[in-house]
Design brief:
The chain has 84 residues and is mostly helical. Helix content is 52%, strand content 0%. The chain has one domain.
Length: 84
Amino acid sequence: MKNDSNQKTTPETNFLFGKKNYLIMIIGILFIAVGFILMAGGGSDDPKVFNEAMYNFRRIRLAPTLILIGFAIEIYAIFTNPKK
């Protein structure tokens, strides 16, 4: 019988995601952040004055689309196999 107590074993660190996954996740987070930045603002300083800028293309169509694309990229990053 051999005694293996002399050998030092170091636990191997395995990350859940690979470098490619984290890169894709960062891209998705950037899409989401840009979408929220584009959606911000558009209000009026005077509550009695209506501002049409609230309902322009950027806030109603572009920003939510970028946010949804960002979430789709995040889902893709999670499901991507890091070993490929």
